[in-house]
């Protein structure tokens, strides 16, 4: 069991950044760990981990251990209490099925924090929890491409942003989880503690030191959103098999359909064939690699499932109307 290293106390403190964490049941461990480790590394000189410049607490109403989605358990170290003792309250979400099981006390604390104008941070599906509490109306919200369709199903009329790693919209901050949690935390450290501690944290964690909110998420093209369960599962199989593409027949077998039946469902749901969607996904990954890495065209071709550079180049030119090298020269976001 993991036990929180530091509680935010009522005594005099040198801390410039005070954060309260709320961990949902079966929360995503890496999203929490990335966020809190940036604070830990920025809080002290070297790697001594003393909570001097940053303080943090794991909050709970009943002080019971909270299990993450991978089974690792974290012990809270403070009750909810007064939200005004924090500069930020961070909600770390996880498995969507657990969101309806949130306690009334947790929801009440979030509402009191919002009323006190304490900035609220939704990490991973923590954005879902903030919406469920009615605290995201009128705010832009970042959601992982992986949960884009789930968000649309649960919150009718709200359009999440799934092409950025995080969003800061006034006193609501949301991120897609994973490594983006560290980059959002680094933004807060830079604002309250300084640029050097923020940079130091990311460097020690072997992460890129200058990731801004507008950086695109690696993931699926956003037009590939469907309410058809078989289509959604097929898209997930495609996403998980970019480097070594599956045949459409194999994807159909995995979702329990005949190939022709799956093709009809794609046409009804997305107006495109499975093959077209798969190619769109692979080329979107190629675009991301071209614009955000210095990998060679040969490596990118292999990473996106093409047998050789010439095949990749021909296909890329047919669909994009330009050569891969020319895309590499364009800034991100320029079409």
From TrEMBL:
The record's keywords, sorted A to Z, are: Transcription, Transcription regulation
Where does the source fall among the domains of life? Bacteria
Q: Where is the signal peptide?
A: none
- Supply the InterPro entries for this chain: Class_I_gatase-like (IPR029062), DJ-1/PfpI (IPR002818), Homeodomain-like_sf (IPR009057), HTH_AraC (IPR018060), INH-QAR (IPR052158)
Ion transport as a keyword of this entry, yes or no, is: no
Write down a Pfam family by its short name.
HTH_18
Q: What is this protein called?
A: AraC family transcriptional regulator
What organism is this sequence from?
Methylobacterium radiodurans
């Amino acid at each position: 069991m993991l036990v929180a290293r530091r509680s935010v106390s009522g005594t005099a403190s040198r801390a410039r950044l005070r954060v309260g964490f709320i961990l949902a049941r079966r929360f995503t461990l890496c999203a929490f760990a990335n966020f809190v480790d940036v604070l830990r590394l920025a809080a002290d000189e070297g790697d001594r981990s003393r909570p001097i410049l940053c303080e943090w607490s794991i909050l709970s109403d009943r002080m019971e251990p909270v299990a993450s989605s991978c089974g690792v358990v974290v012990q809270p170290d403070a009750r909810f209490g007064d939200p005004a003792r924090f500069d930020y309250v961070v909600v770390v979400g996880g498995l969507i099925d657990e969101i309806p099981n949130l306690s009334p006390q947790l929801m009440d604390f979030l509402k009191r924090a919002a009323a006190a104008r304490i900035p609220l941070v939704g990490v991973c599906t923590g954005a879902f929890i903030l919406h469920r509490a009615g605290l995201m109306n009128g705010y832009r919200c970042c959601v992982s491409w992986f949960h884009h369709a789930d968000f649309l199903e649960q919150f009718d009329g709200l359009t999440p942003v799934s092409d950025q790693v995080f969003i800061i919209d006034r006193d609501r901050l949301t991120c897609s989880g994973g490594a983006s949690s560290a980059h959002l935390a680094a933004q807060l450290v830079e604002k309250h503690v300084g640029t050097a501690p923020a940079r130091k944290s990311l460097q020690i964690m072997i992460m890129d030191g200058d990731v801004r909110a507008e950086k695109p998420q690696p993931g699926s093209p956003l037009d590939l959103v469907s309410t058809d369960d078989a289509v959604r599962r097929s898209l997930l199989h495609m996403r998980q098999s970019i480097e070594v593409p599956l045949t459409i027949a194999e994807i159909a077998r995995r979702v329990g359909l005949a190939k022709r039946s799956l093709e009809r469902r794609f046409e009804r749901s997305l107006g495109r064939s499975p093959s077209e969607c798969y190619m769109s996904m692979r080329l979107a990954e190629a675009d991301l690699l071209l614009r955000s890495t210095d990998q060679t065209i040969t490596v990118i071709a292999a990473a996106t499932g093409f047998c050789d550079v010439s095949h990749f180049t021909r296909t890329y030119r047919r669909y994009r109307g330009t050569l891969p090298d020319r895309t590499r020269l364009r800034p991100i976001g320029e079409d």
